[in-house]
Amino acid sequence: MAITGTGVGVGEAFSGSGSLTPEMVELMFAQWEREQASDDWEAARDAAQWRAIDEALAQEQVSGWAAEELAGGLVAAGRGLDRAGVDADELVRVFDASMSDGLEAVGQLRARLDGIAFSLAFEAASRGLHTAVGLSLVDWLRVRCPMLSKQEACQVQDVVRAAGHHWGAPLAEAVRTGTGAVHRVAKVARTMRRLAGSLDVDQQQDYAKIATGAATNPGISDQDLDVVCQKLLIDLLDEKPREEAKATAQELRRVTSRPLGRGMTRFTVDAPEGDAGLIDGVLCGPLAAPTPAEDGTPDGRMPGQRKYDAFWLTFNRGTSNPGAPPSSARASVIVTVKADPATGRPEGAAVSSTGAVMDAAQAGRLACVGDVTPIVLGEHGEPLALGRTVRLATPGQFKALMVRDGQCTYPGCSVPGTWCDSHHLIWWCRGGGTDLELLVLLCPRHHTLVHDQDLMATITGSVVTWHV
C-alpha cells in the first residue's frame, strides 16, 4: 500500500536507506492503522455475507435434506436386514447365544420401526393426507403398508388420536422412542379416551401418566395392563359422588367383541347399574329357567347356555320385528350369498354387512326373520337378481297366527307366541310366499333347529304338525 501524498510504501520506508523524520514515521503508522481497519471491516463484511448465504441455503434445502435422510436411513436399514436374512440352512450354524442376541435385536428394531411408522402416520394425519383421497386413516395406512393388519392400523390410529390431546403427549413419545409397544399404548389410549370426559385437566394427566408407566414397564404383562386400565375405571367411579358416578357410568357404557376362532365370538358388555339390572332380569329370569321336555327329561342346557338363549330370545324379538309393518323393521341386515340362478337356492358361505361369515342355512333363517335382502351372485360375484323385500308377516297376519297357533308350534314347546317368529314353511329364499297358510310360529331356539335340520310341517285347519 502506498502512503497518500508521499509516494513511499510503508515497507519501503522501513527498509530503505533514506532518512526519516518523526513526522513521516507518525504519518506512516497512521496510514497502516487505517489499512488494517479497512481490512478488518472487509473481512467482517465478507463473513456476514457468507453467513447469510449459508442460512439461505440451509432454509431452502432443509426439507430436501430431511427427506433424503429419511429415505437414505430406511434404505440403509433395508440393506442391513438383507444381510441378516440368512436362510434356514445357515441358521443351523448359528450358536445359541447369537440366536438369543438376534431375537433381542429384532425386538429393538421392531420397536424403532414402529416408532418411525407412528411418526409418519401422525404427520400424515395432521396434514390430512388420508382425507385428501377420501380414506380413513386406517384404510390409508393399509394401502401404504399392505402387510399391516386392520387391528394394527387401528392401534396406530388410537395413538394418533390420543396424541392430539394434551394428556396424549407421553403416549406418543413412548411409541416414538420405542419404549412402549404400539398395542399396549393403544390400549391405554382407548382407556383414556373413555375416561377423559369424566376427568378434569389435572386428573387426565395423572391418569395418563399412571397408565403410560404401566404400558412401558416390561415387567407388567398384557393381562396385568388390562387390570390396570380396568382399575382406573373402577377408581374413577368410586371417587365420584353417587349421582355424578351414574352420569360417568353412562359415558363409560360399551360393548366390545373379539373372535375366539372356530366360529365363536366373545362379546364383553360394560353396562351402567340401571341397565345391568334389566340385563340380569333377562339372564336370570323365567326365560333362562330350565325347561324339561314333554316327556319329563331334564333340560340338558348348562346355566350359561340358558342365559344365552334368554338373551338371544330377547334380542331376536327386536330384530325379527313381530307384529310390525315390513317397512318399519327394527334392525336391518344385508347378507350376500351365492345362489343357484335357476332355483334361487343359497349355496356356500354367506357374508353379512359386518363381515360375519355364516353358512347358507343360517342365511336362510335370517331371511325369514330379519330385514334381509338376499342378493343372488353369479360365478364371479356379479349380482344376478335381487330378492323380494316384502316378506315379513303383516300385523294382521301375525295376529291371526297368535289366534291360530298361540305359542311355538314345535312339539313340546310352550314359549308364548309374543316371543315367537313367523316362519315360512317354504323358505323365503327358496321362493316361498308370505301367505298365512305357509306361516307358523316358532320360538328362536326351535326356529334355528328347523332351519338347521331343514324340517317341514303341514297345516290342517288350525293344527300344525311337524315332521320331526
Automatic annotation (TrEMBL):
Record has Nuclease as a keyword: yes
What are the HNH nuclease domain coordinates in residue numbering? 396-448
- Pfam family of the protein (one): DUF222
Does Heme show up as a keyword for this record?
A: no
Q: Which Gene3D superfamilies match?
A: 1.10.30.50
Q: Show the GO MF annotations.
A: endonuclease activity
Keywords assigned: Endonuclease, Hydrolase, Nuclease
Q: Tell me the SMART domains matching this sequence.
A: HNHc
Positions of transmembrane segments: none
Output this protein's name.
HNH endonuclease
What species does this protein belong to? Ornithinimicrobium cryptoxanthini
For this protein's source organism, the top of the classification is: Bacteria, Bacillati, Actinomycetota, Actinomycetes, Micrococcales
